[in-house]
Amino acid sequence: MSTKTDSTLVRALDRCEPLSDRFNPILVKEVRQFLRARSFGWTFVTLVVVVAVIGALIVLSDEPRPSADLGASFTALLVWMLGIGTLVIVPLQAYQSLGSEWEAETFDQLTLSGLSPRQILGGKWLSAALQSLLILLAFVPFVALGFLMRGVDLLALGVVLVIILATSFWASALALAVSSMARARATRVVLYVLIAVATFMGVGMVASFAMELLGQPDRIGQAGFLGAFTTFLVVGTVLAGFCFEYGCGQLAHPEENTSTPLRVLTLAGTVLVLAWVALAAWLGWIPSRAVEALGALTTGGLGVLSMLWTAERQRLGRRVAHDLARPGSRTRMLPAMLLPGGSRGAVFSYVLLSLGAVYTVFGAEFGGSFHMDESRWLGVWLLCYYSFFVAMPAALLARFCQRGAGAWAVRLVMVLFLAACVVVPAVAGLLFGSNFLVNIEHPLNPFWVLPEAADGSLSMPTVVSVVVLGVVGLLVNVPRIFRGTKEILRARAGRFDDDDPAVVRSRERMLEM
Amino acid sequence: MVATTKEPLLEVDTITKSFGRHVAVSQVSFSVPAGAVCGFIGPNGAGKTTTMRIAATLELPDRGDVRVAGRSALLDPRGVRRMIGFMPDAYGTYAATTVAEYVDFFARAFGLKGKERLRAIDSVTDFTGLRPLLEKPISGLSKGMKQRLSLAKTLLNDPSILILDEPASGLDPRARVELRELIRILADQGKAVLVSSHILTELSEICDEVAVIESGTIQATGDIATLSAGADAAKGMQVRARFLTDVDAAQRFLAEQNFVVGTRREREGVVFGFKGDQEALADLLERTVREGLRPVEFHGERIDLEDLFLHLTQGKLQ
Ligand SMILES: Nc1ncnc2c1ncn2[C@@H]1O[C@H](COP(=O)(O)OP(=O)(O)O)[C@@H](O)[C@H]1O
Ligand SMILES: [Mg+2]
């Protein structure tokens, strides 16, 4: 079954037995599996051989070229191969590795073994990270060779390698999150192809950026680079953390409260990103205008993510309700907006986006250059649009959010609603002969309003209309926010609306324990 | 040692579960005390697996709940998972994994560390007799050995409640006997064991009690003796008689006697239901002889397990 070589590897691993207790069990299992399975070895060998062969061809090609050119094209080859290995193959392998737990019907056993979703997904993530690291290590001799051929700046090369490694970790987290969402075979295949395409495009982007950087290594020293680079790392890491936590939620027991951790993480991530941007501006690493832009971007991103919480099932889970009633439980200490349920999700999103909006208004001050341009209100318009395009449909369609599929349908409706709001007035414009409407230049079109606002050329009527949209969205949500808060108060007081006598008996038994 | 307490360790409390329009399990309730083996019997598609998966926190009931040592599967799934061992009917294994690695992985997953882990692995592989097979790849194991491996994995964290879904299906007779012995030992250690089967006789020797399910509803619960007695009273016993003389005459005579219901010809004999007691049956035999019929076989049989099962379920197919 196993050849000599890999059994020695496995045996070597067994020698670290006492140490292995510290590691995540999934990681130990995956490492054992990929040492034994051929696929990883083949990928590894193929990549190295391809680099060696093409590298040799480049070096030996009789076309006379300056040495600097040679080093650069060799490094380009390295970046591509490294990118394909760590950014495409490793994430796809992580995607499959989680999927195989369902296909081989081993996932239930993992669940029953008491491994938490975080341990399961974390093990998979770590093992993907380990594979990326191994690939990177295998390339070190080639990288050294490329460097010796000259024409390559060592610092730039280091930055490129860090970017490749970081994006590889993020891509694996994304692949795992996507993998956690679908169990049906057909869907999984489609998603697999999508991830393959997306990661391949990612390699293209990373490679072209890398080439630019390697071509002009002095840009690393320029103002702004450090700020952009570190902000990129911070934002990417926060997003990857979000993906990871989302994936964990997908693997959890259906009565488990998966919403609160995701909301806490989002809040913490937002604060971290905004604080980092402010600090970078204060240090002079990024221009103060960039603070405003990043604040608005963050607010917009949060608006999109808010589709998740705003369209959640309205009711508290029975498990959460039980937890709320238990004296001394941690859930009891949480503010209502962090508890699961669409209405509380709406409150959370309003708070989060307001934070982003306020930050955008005052952001430029961190760079020490306060200005009164209209662009600083971008965050506020985003908040209004969230209220109208996300929170309002969610409130009107709340009763369709009972099940996961229904909630996704509602999220789709939000997108369609936005599209309709952009297009329908244009059609009306055709009928009534209004040029503004035909050119889709109206307040219901955020894709026109937001760039205008960034330019600081919004008209007063437009501003008023956008604010009205926001207020309408908020008003539509008021009743359900009221009900959602009441539900929390009742649950805290130990009063449940559960009509299931068996659950009531369980709750009494559990409270006695 | 049989546990002294009769407090139920596993309580299934009016669970209902539908898949789309199809009601797989409806209002199912029963309980299993410590130290008892409860057979969960019903035809294919009756809802056994669904019930067991709900008890194992792998599926969420639409209504109702399952409690394991007082912990609710709904409100404290993690607590329940620590207490139970669930052996599914179909289970997957990892490719290119040996028995030792498989058991070791789950021992780690159960959070066992260092010496404790090695001890647990030794103990379960000894118990299931897997010790000599440790270095074998799982793909090369026989069905019986795979069942043992699954059982070994299930026992790693020493659960107080065992839920075994059709563990005997597909096993050869010897493996089946060995499995029954293992189950009995586990129950004698004080564990509550719920074991399902679509064949009653597979389990009758080791079960202290049974819960019979059909079409998602419980038809009967209790120990086998009580259930058989109840079925006897309802349905009576069945008598087989064979005569040297004219069978038609015998059938006509029997049909007129007290307590006799539904006579029919079967091969050379007559089979009839009899609702009287043993005394009445002896009288009937005497009268038959006096009548000049010459019985060579006259034999009342108590309802057997197969009949009990047929009696309890209506044989509705799903
Ligand atoms: N995941 C599922 N989706 C749809 N129907 C299911 C699912 N699981 C079980 N069923 C249906 O529920 C019924 C009970 O199934 P099951 O509990 O597996 O029965 P048993 O284990 O007694 O053979 C069957 O009719 C089966 O088709
Ligand atoms: Mg079954």
Automatic annotation (TrEMBL), chain A:
Top-rank taxon: Bacteria
Native species: Rohdeia mirabilis
Transmembrane segments: 39-60, 72-92, 125-148, 154-177, 189-211, 223-244, 264-285, 291-309, 347-366, 378-400, 412-438, 458-482
Annotated keywords: Membrane, Transmembrane, Transmembrane helix
Coiled-coil boundaries: none
Protein name from the UniProt record: ABC-2 family transporter protein
From TrEMBL, chain B:
Boundaries of every ABC transporter domain copy: 10-240
Keyword Metal-binding included in the entry's annotation: no
Pfam families named in the record: ABC_tran
Keyword terms of this UniProt record: ATP-binding, Hydrolase, Nucleotide-binding, Transport
EC number(s) per entry: 3.6.3.-
Keyword Repressor: no
Entry-linked Gene3D superfamilies: P-loop containing nucleotide triphosphate hydrolases
SUPFAM superfamilies documented for this protein: P-loop containing nucleoside triphosphate hydrolases
GO MF annotation: an example: ATP hydrolysis activity
Family per similarity comment: Belongs to the ABC transporter superfamily.
Protein name per the record: Putative ABC transporter ATP-binding protein YxlF
